[in-house]
Amino acid sequence: MSNPPLAPSCSMNRRTLLNTFGMGLGGFALNEMLCKEVQAVNGNGALQHVHHAPKAKRVIYLFQAGGPSQLDLFDNKPTLVKRTGQQLPESVRGGQRLTGMSGNQSSLPLVGSPFTFSQHGESGATLSELLPHTAAIADRLCFVKAMYTESINHGPGVCFMQSGSQIPGRPSIGAWLDYGLGSITNELPSFVVLITKKKGGQPLQSHLWGSGFLPSRHQAVRFRSGSDPVLYINNPPGISSDNRRLMLDGLRRLHEHQFSGTPDNEITERIAHYEMAYRMQASVPDVTDLSDEPKHVLERYGSDATDAGSFAANCLLARRLAERGVRFIQLYHQGWDHHGGLRGGLKKQCKETDQPAAALVQDLADRGMLDDTLVIWGGEFGRTNYCQGLYKPNADFGRDHHPRCFTSWMAGGGIRPGISWGKTCEYGYNIDGEGVHIHDFHATLLHLLGIDHERLTYKFQGRRYRLTDVHGHVVKEILA
Length: 480
Fold this sequence. Notes:
- α1 crosses α2 (about 25-40), α9 (about 240-260) runs antiparallel to α10 (about 265-290) and α12 (about 310-325) runs parallel beside α13 (about 340-365).
- The protein is about 35% helix and about 15% strand.
- By secondary structure, it is α/β, with parallel strands linked by helices.
C-alpha cells in the first residue's frame, strides 16, 4: 500500500519528503538521529567524558580589543630606544605585508617605548610602569611573549582569536565548550559575555560569541549594564511568575507535539531557551547585585567597581558568575587601537584595566578558585616597532597593527606561574625561536579543560570541524 502522490501545487521540502516517502521511514530515521544528538547535548555535554583529567573547570577571558602594544607594556626592547628615528632594516622586516595605514609610508622609523620598564617579583618579570598592579602579581602569571597570527586587521583578527577562523560563521570558544562539556549549573548560562560600556574603537559583533553551526543554545548570553542586565527575561506588567510557568508548560507541550511530527532540532533549542530565561529571572538579579560584597573587595577592584558596565565592575561580576557555575566568561574591553596618541591612550587604558585585572586574579586566589580557573589577558595582535606617520622627537606617536609577535598572559587553571615563555628579536619585530599560533593557544586552552582538541568535533556540511581547524599543538612548556 503506497502513500497517495502529493498534488503538484503542494510545497515540499526535505523534511516533508522524508516524512512521506517510504511510509515515513525517512522521517523516523531523521527523528532518531536528531533525538540522539539532542540527548547527547542535553546530557553532560556531547563528549560525555573528558579525554584526560582537567586542570581547569572554568575560563575568564579578558579580551583587550584593538591590539595592545606589547612593546610598551610587556616586551622591553632597549635596542629600539637606542635606535629611535632610524629606519627599520629590510633584513628585519623580511618583506612582510603592511596595512594600508603605513604601507605607503616613505619611511618606517623605529621608535622605542617612552615608558620605563623594571623587574618584579621572584620571577623577575619585566613590566612597564603603566602596570603597577599587574606587576604586583607577576609571580602568579605566565607571560606568553611569542604569540602570532596571520590576521593583520581587526575584524579577521578578533574573529580568529574567538573562533579559530578569520571568516565569521564558526562557533566561538565558549560555544565549543558548552557543546562539548555541557553546563555546570542549570540556573545560569554556561557562556556569558560582558562588554565595557561607552568604549570607542572597532565594533564587536555578535558572531564573536555565537554558536555558528552548532545548535543555537550554545551561543553566549550577553549581560548588559543597568537595571535590565539580560533583555526580555522579565515578565511583562500584570504577568505573575505562576502565570509565566503555566504559559511555558503549555508552550512546551505544543513544541513537543510539533517535534513529534516535524523532528526539527531548533524546536528543542527553543524550549531550552525559554526554560533558561525562566530560571534566570531569579538567578540574574542575585548574581548582579553587588550589595553583599565587602568594602575591602570593592576597594581592591578600584573606584569603578560599583559602576555597572565598567571594566572593574565586569571583572567583579565575572568572579561572581564563576562562583555560581558559569563555565566560560568573556569580557571585552575596547580602545587599544593606538595609531596615534599612544602615550595618553595607553595611560588611560591601563588606568581602567590594570587594577581590576590584577584584583580578579588575587580575588580568585584568596577564595581558592584560581587553581581551577583559567584567566587569560590579551588582544588579537600586537603593534609595530616603527612609528605610524612621521616621527618627531618628543612628540606623541602611534603604532600600526603587527601580527608577527605579541604578548598575552595567563594565570591559574594548570598554567605555570611566574614564567615568561617565548622571546622576540632585539627589534621586537620577529619571534626568536618557537612561537605560539592561535591554534596552539586554543589547543592549550582545551587541554587544560580536559579536552583533546583533535577529538572535539562537529560534523557540518559533510566535514568534521573543530576549534583548531586542521592543526595546532599544546604548548606543554607553560603547563604546571
